[in-house]
Write a structure and sequence with these properties.
The structure is a homodimer.
Chain A lengths: L1 H6 L1 E2 L2 E2 H13 L5 E12 L2 E6 L2 E3 L2 E2 L7 E5 L14 H24 L3 E13 L17 E10 L3 H14 L1 H8 L3 E7 L1
Antiparallel strand pairs in A: 1-2, 3-4, 3-5, 4-7, 5-6, 8-9
Helix pairs in contact in A: 3-4, 3-5
Organism (chains A, B): Pseudonocardia xishanensis
Protein name (chains A, B): OsmC family protein
Pfam family, one (chains A, B): OsmC
């Protein structure tokens, strides 16, 4: 019995629950609509803080999280801050790294590939002439490009491991969001 | 003398340093090329961790940061995790909130607007039928849309405060990156 239960866990993912979730979504697609959230408060200068907890899933507000998290953002001295936290651009790179990693780990679990290690390095090029308004003709505000290198090992041949990474990329929420863009509606309330 | 020094600080931003930085970039545009970085390691299942510290700026590796940060990402139970941290999609919302906030605070400082408070709420719509591969015809992997509401108060009329937020949006690195997308190059190394 223990052996049977353990057999469903692969790469730390319960594949029985994974396949049951996929079946549930196929049977009732409306449960797949999620709403994720963050609230942010300015502390001072380049320092601000987000709180993350609530989200909507499976046609209801999720109640499984008893505690949330706070995340501090800042800027280094050269960008007029005091390193109160990673800066927003660095948080974007982290979001991308984390999402591709989780997607590929889940993909490997679904395909029966046991992974030994996954790590990644990311670097984004940004010319601040755009964001600082110095030269907005030649430079955009955002990253010009991002490079990501994933190093992976596991119980499959190199070509299969490569496919696992590519599948993770192709199913990643943040990869798609950053690669192809997302419409953002901004409202302003003056208090 | 103290009064003169204090006069340059607005919204926690040293505007004298800000304008000196802008002048330095105008005089020597190549110092505006930044490279931001993150490295990520898979821990198990939906749990992975990024380290953030080094970056390149002003034609050299920055050495001002003595310590960096680690950021843990996870997934809630409904997405097969154990809430090891905010999930990657939530980190993306935080990056967006933090960047628009810092951009608008800096913009207000440059324009002589003293802010009293800034807060924001963000919500992103995501149908996981795409990312889970259940229905990739009708649903993308990434966020369908993101809504952001900024609440702001300060020593300027509502219309001016609104312009400050819009200026912050229009100069934000992460807003532009997410709204318009960034080319991402992914390399794979099998170990």
């Amino acid at each position: 019995m223990t052996e049977t239960v353990n057999d469903t866990i692969r790469n730390g993912v319960d594949t029985a629950t994974m396949f049951a979730t996929l079946d549930a979504i196929k049977a009732q697609p409306e449960i797949a609509a999620f709403k994720f959230r963050a609230t942010n408060t300015w502390i001072g200068g380049s320092h601000n803080r987000s709180s993350i907890k609530s989200f909507y899933a499976a046609c209801a507000e999720d109640t499984s999280r008893t505690e949330g998290w706070t995340l501090d953002a800042g800027e280094p001295a050269i960008l007029l801050g005091a390193d109160e936290g990673p800066n927003p651009a660095e948080y974007l790179l982290h979001a991308l790294a984390a999402c591709v990693t989780t997607s590929l780990v889940y993909s490997a679990a679904a395909r029966g590939v046991r992974l030994t290690s996954v790590s990644s390095t990311l670097e984004g090029d940004l010319d601040v002439q755009g964001a600082m308004g110095v030269n907005t003709e030649d430079y955009r505000n955002g990253f010009e490009r991002i490079r990501m290198t994933v190093t992976i090992s596991g119980d499959a041949p190199p070509e299969k491991l490569r496919q696992v990474v590519e599948r993770g990329r192709d199913r990643s929420v943040v990869f798609d969001s950053v690669m192809h863009g997302v419409p953002i509606e901004l409202d302003v309330v003056t208090a």
